[in-house]
Structure formats: structure tokens, C-alpha cells
Design a protein that fits this description.
alpha/beta, Rossmann fold, Alpha-Beta Plaits
């Protein structure tokens, strides 16, 4: 278990901006640092490069953002820190965390599938922190849109996944242009990783929280289908588990689509997530899953790493992974920190377990008759205004409380993107809210407002 420590336990010893750090954590509603975050801050004082080994969901994002924040200079112009990540979703996730800290420092996010023009305009006024995927950042650096001379801090997040995705050449190209780096931080969810020379990391302090943060409250069970086709077994299993946050993992995109089509015919509310979807579709699926509008997400291994999806109760392996690492990362989505969770294997009639699952797995008997889980408590509203329209969360809260006549507890999570926003509203209130706000304006504009698809 990763212990938590009072914020002041460390902040009182901070050599830079303790007030800014404390305000940032207060804005995140964090009252205590966990051991990963404190160890990262403590290591940062020594000046060495840092290698942080920790799984997703263990607090590692703050584990590197806090040292980065501590190194930012409000009187300095230009990009001061660059954070390279292997996926668009992770880039957006880190950007949102930093924005929620409300530090006053500008942050921008660049990634494939995002508007090049939007990114070019943002980079004309350089942020203090630039976050992005290696391919897109390498392109901006090559074309002279990113001035690298002011960058003193480099973070390589989920570095093992970036290598797996084939980003080595892009990362090497970018890092080769960073001549004044004073601090390098590398994070990985895999221990057996050889750090390439191109990273420039030397004599690092290694913080290893992989074993400490591993799911100790995880149960692994199995269910067996009556034939080779597992669809009916999956349907009955999901219905029997009820209205809990559940991830169903498949090995291929076409299987995700096939399962989704079957569940749609059966009336089971869910969403899908895989690399073949447009970026907007992937963002929307994660937003609705996080805010409780959907409790079931059918996905490939794309969702097994690098995404902050809290409080997953069940993981279901519709297909067994071919590698042990994939099995570990999938299961790591549940039973996090102090929570309990269950991982289910859906097995065809004659399907054998892979060799890396060598323990005795108990089988659950699926019920013959099941009923659909109740509808989720939340519905997501789409609002066609976002950050580029100068709209923020405070604006949307005020708008929906005043014009939509909602109470605070009838308003859920709010996500503000560049040109759109998504707001969770209590299901029983959503139709009334839509009626009340249909002709209203936000920041003098009348955006499109509808239930999100």
C-alpha cells in the first residue's frame, strides 16, 4: 500500500515556491501526498536525473508534475519543460491535470489528429510546459515552431510504451535538439527496460514502486461459455455484475466492434475504445466512462496503459492476452491502491489457459436468466463551446446552475476541450435542463447543446 503523507510534511522544506505548490494541490483537492510524490520531490532536491517506475493510477503524474512545477520560473519566457508521451489520451490527461492545478503557467498539448493550425497559433505564444506525442512534437521542432533553447526540463512519460509504439527515432530527434536540459525524468510501468543513450539520462536516482503499488486485493476468476462463441457468456456475465465500472479487453479492433454490435442489439448501454476510432470519438468515450454516463467500456489493450480511469471494479478478458505483461497491465486497471477488484477470464469450451497463468482459477457459474443493469445515473451534455471560445469550467457551472436551474449535486464532471465541452447531468434532470437552456447564450454566443452521442 502506498502510504500518504500530509502536504506540509514536505512543502515546509521546499526551496522554491512552497505557496504555489500548496495552492496547486489545494486546487486539485489533494490534502496529502503519497510516497511516490514525496519521494519524487525529495529526489528532485538532489539534482540528479530521475527514473520513476510506477503503474498507471499510482499518482505518478503528480510525481513528475510537482518537480516540474518547482522548476518553473514565472519571470522566464519560452518553453521551460517538455513532456513526451506515447498517446494522445495521455497527453490530454496530463494537460488537464496541470490546468486544474491553476498555477498561472501556460500549458499546451500537441498530438496527431489535432488541428495543426490550432497548435501553430498556440506555439506563437510559447507555453511554459509543452506536452505531446513524439511524432507531432518532432514535426513542430523540425519546422522551427518550437524554440528549444529555453527548455531545461524533459519528462519521458510511459517511456516503455513509447518504445513499444516505435517512437524511438522521433524521441531521439527531439532530444538531440535540446541542448540545455538540466533535469530529465523518465517514467515506466515496466522494470526490465534498458534506457537508450539518446535519452541523455546519466547517474539517475531510481524510484521503484512497481511491487508496492501492485494490486494486492485482486481476485481472478473465470467463466466458461457453452461453445466457442463467447458473446452470450459475456452478456450474462456483465448483466450479473450489475452497474459497476467494467472494462472488457479484446485482442483486436474488429472484435470490439462485433461485441458492441451484439450488445447494442441486446440493449446494453456501453461504449467502445480502440485505435481505429477518430480522436474525437476516443475522447468522448473516455469522458463518458469517467463521468458515469457509461459503466461498460469495450476496448483493446490501448486502454490497459497510460490512461487515468479510476475506480474500475471489474476487468474482463474476453480474449486472453498473448503476453504476460499485457495480462498484468490489464489487471492493473482494477484493485488499485486501497480498493478491491476482480478480473474475469471468459473461456471458450475447450480453451486452455496460457502458461503464464499458472495458478488455480476458480470458476463462477453464470445465471441462466439475467436482467439488464439499470440506466446510469448520469447523462453527458455536449456544448459546442470550449477553451478557444474563452469558456471554462466556472462559466459552465454558473450557466447550468443559473439558467438550467440545477443544484450542485445534480451536476457531475465537466470536461472543457478546445472547441467543445462535455458536462455530466443527473439523468432525471437532463430533459428539463435542455428545455431551459435551449435559447440561452454562453459568453455572448449561442452554442449547440444536446445529449452527447
Amino acid at each position: 500500500m502506498i502510504r500518504e503523507l500530509p502536504i506540509n510534511h514536505y512543502l515546509c522544506a521546499m526551496q522554491k515556491n512552497p505557496g504555489l505548490m500548496e495552492r496547486a494541490l489545494k486546487n486539485l483537492n489533494i490534502s496529502s501526498l503519497n510516497a511516490i510524490q514525496e519521494a519524487s520531490l525529495e529526489a528532485d532536491k538532489k539534482g540528479n536525473d530521475l527514473v520513476l517506475l510506477a503503474p498507471t493510477g499510482s499518482g505518478k503524474t503528480l510525481g513528475f508534475l510537482l518537480p516540474v512545477l518547482n522548476r518553473l520560473n514565472p519571470d522566464k519566457e519560452g518553453i521551460q519543460a517538455m513532456i513526451l508521451v506515447p498517446s494522445r489520451e495521455l497527453a490530454l490527461q496530463i494537460e488537464q491535470v496541470f490546468r486544474d492545478m491553476s498555477t498561472g503557467f501556460k500549458v499546451n498539448c500537441c498530438y496527431g489528429g489535432h488541428s495543426i493550425q490550432t497548435e501553430r497559433n498556440s506555439l506563437k505564444h510559447p507555453p511554459a510546459i509543452l506536452i505531446g506525442t513524439p511524432g507531432r512534437i518532432a514535426d513542430h521542432v523540425k519546422r522551427g515552431r518550437v524554440e528549444t533553447s529555453s527548455i531545461h526540463t524533459l519528462v519521458l512519460d510511459e517511456f516503455d510504451k513509447a518504445l513499444e509504439f516505435g517512437f524511438q527515432a522521433d524521441m531521439a530527434s527531439i532530444i538531440g535538439q535540446l541542448r540545455r536540459i538540466k533535469k530529465r525524468i523518465l517514467t515506466s510501468a515496466t522494470q526490465s527496460i534498458k534506457i537508450p543513450v539518446f535519452t541523455g539520462i546519466s547517474s539517475p536516482i531510481e524510484l521503484n514502486f512497481l511491487e508496492e503499488a501492485s494490486p494486492k486485493e485482486l481476485q481472478i476468476k473465470a467463466v466458461k461459455s457453452e461453445g466457442k462463441d463467447k458473446l452470450e457468456a459475456l452478456f450474462r456475465l456483465v448483466c450479473s455484475l450489475g452497474n459497476e465500472a467494467t472494462l472488457v479487453f479484446c485482442n483486436h479492433r474488429d472484435a470490439v466492434e462485433r461485441i458492441s454490435g451484439h450488445l447494442n442489439l441486446r440493449g446494453l448501454v456501453h461504449d467502445i475504445f480502440h485505435g481505429g476510432l477518430e480522436q474525437e470519438e476516443r475522447e468522448r468515450a473516455l469522458i463518458k466512462f469517467r463521468n458515469g454516463s457509461h459503466h461498460l467500456l469495450i476496448t483493446t489493450d490501448l486502454a490497459s496503459r497510460g490512461l487515468d480511469i479510476p475506480e474500475i471494479k471489474y476487468v474482463i478478458h474476453y480474449h486472453l492476452p498473448t503476453k504476460e505483461d499485457a495480462f498484468i497491465h490489464r489487471n492493473g486497471r482494477t484493485a488499485r491502491m486501497k480498493a478491491e477488484g476482480t478480473s474475469y477470464l471468459v473461456l471458450a469450451q475447450d480453451e486452455l489457459l496460457p502458461r503464464f497463468i499458472n495458478e488455480s482459477i476458480p470458476f463462477d457459474q453464470l445465471p441462466e436468466n439475467v436482467t439488464l443493469p439499470k440506466q446510469p445515473d448520469w447523462v453527458t451534455l455536449f456544448i459546442g463551446s470550449g477553451k478557444k471560445d474563452k469558456v471554462n469550467k466556472v462559466d459552465l457551472v454558473g450557466f447550468l446552475l443559473q439558467k438550467g436551474k440545477l443544484q450542485k449535486d445534480e451536476l457531475g464532471l465537466i470536461n472543457v476541450l478546445d472547441y467543445s465541452s462535455f458536462v455530466a447531468v443527473r439523468r432525471e434532470k437532463v430533459n428539463k435542463v435542455l428545455h431551459l437552456i435551449r435559447n440561452e447564450r454562453i459568453k455572448r454566443k449561442k452554442p449547440k447543446i444536446a445529449i452527447s452521442k
